[in-house]
């Protein structure tokens, strides 16, 4: 299969209005986000690029000046009425024997490690437009309190982290499912620090562009991972997975963009290892973790319990003071004592913990 890859075309800027001089031979067009503002405009633009099947995920810019969930709903409705156009947000589609798993992905602010997570979040709030330009519905799960301006609720680092965890859990679950053909993961945000230029890898804002999902690549063995967001092209491998990005970028950044970049995927190599689901916290969403803590929902599987234990370890390493624990207990309708006891049940290795 020949896959035409592009991202970050940023058609919201009039000086970047663009059409390829020549359409390359391809079987599928993959657009890895930041195509235009809004999602509907990105879809219309994508339709004009190719008459072949199109796989598209949203970037962060598609939501600027918009309500995120309403935009996603509109995008799904619009894409659903268009034959061979697949707008993926935690969704999978099989085209010509190749599996495409798609999500925006967002970020978890842990690229530089747990000690720097809060610093990265503060830096993001100061400098990233996402937290001033993307509206969300009031969200009780946001334990730090939402960003509020002019009576509206805006994206916060907790929102991005929650969505990232949901997407990572979805991707990991999909990769764990046996599939005979090649698998391509498409996200806007990058899955590894190697996608960040070396000159920026240690900066706090690097955590706004990539998260470390090497465990998903090493355990799930996708053939190809396509992403955008970082305005520098990349082509590298993690284990058996090739990671490729081909961004056009902002005005003045288009020098390394290849408008006809096509990656050819062969049939899946029989020697490639079978997927093995590792019980990291990414195996379940934050909402599912809350269900397990409260004892509601379906009976957790062994893998879900292991993932819940990893979530407990994560929370004890990131919660900085009793106020965070109290907000979580309030949200779950539990006392702090009961919450601490339940955490110790789920992860006795890191406990016991004081309430």
Automatic annotation (TrEMBL):
UniProt entry keywords in alphabetical sequence: Hydrolase
Domain of life according to the entry: Bacteria
Pfam families attached to this UniProt entry: Metallophos
Keyword set includes Hydrolase: yes
UniProt keyword annotation of Hydrolase present: yes
Database matches in InterPro entries: Calcineurin-like_PHP (IPR004843), Metallo-depent_PP-like (IPR029052)
Domain named Calcineurin-like phosphoesterase: residues: 1-233
UniProt-recorded Gene Ontology molecular function terms: hydrolase activity
Protein name according to UniProt: Phosphatase
